[in-house]
Amino acid sequence: MKKTDLLLHPVRMRIIQQLLAGKPQTIMQLVEALGDVPQATLYRHMKLMLESNLIEVVQVNKIHGQEERVYAAVQENLSISESEAYSASQEDHLRYFSVFHTNLLQQATAYLSKTPVKQYAADGFGYWNAPLHMTDEEFASFVATINELLDKVAANKPTSERKTRLFASMMIPQPQKPPSKGE
């Protein structure tokens, strides 16, 4: 199975996000955190991600003679290569985007249903889009700057002072209009 198919799956995406949001977790902690994912389904997806080295067992606890495994995401294995991303078909990209968008919608719905409106600004909740006019070189520099900033904060470890915030981004090139006579 391709890494894109492994990562861009509704349940597996939520599992990975849960493991990235804080400390490593057991199956029971994941069942509780994810809420609507049956335990058998969770085990099936965890097995697949273990075999694909997207997650790993970081600790094994003995509880009443039973082994309880503690899982963490293998962060260096969670990125999709440029060649895999660009070799996907249009249909694949539409499916991946649909999963990505649905996951964002679920995250926003969960936040909005539990948080009073007056808290949104303090939490930094927001969404927007903006047309950006850039040459290819300006765009490359812009993306490099954003990636540099993201790498810096993505390296932060969870602490009691830090809040977890989901940052999502996408770029959608717009159709080019022919230049008007005055340009």
Automatic annotation (TrEMBL):
Q: Which domain of life is it from?
A: Bacteria
Key word Transferase present: no
Pfam name, any one: HTH_20
SUPFAM superfamilies linked to this entry: Winged helix' DNA-binding domain (SSF46785)
Q: What are the UniProt keywords, alphabetically?
A: DNA-binding
Which InterPro entries does the entry mention?
ArsR-like_HTH, HTH_ArsR_DNA-bd_dom, WH-like_DNA-bd_sf, WH_DNA-bd_sf
From the UniProt record, which GO molecular function terms apply? DNA binding; DNA-binding transcription factor activity
Q: Which SMART domains match?
A: HTH_ARSR
Please report the stretch or stretches of sequence annotated as the HTH arsR-type domain.
Answer: 2-76
Alphabetical list of NCBIfam families matching this protein: PRK06474.1
Tell me what this protein is called: Transcriptional regulator
Origin organism is: Xylanibacillus composti
Lineage of the organism? Bacteria, Bacillati, Bacillota, Bacilli, Bacillales
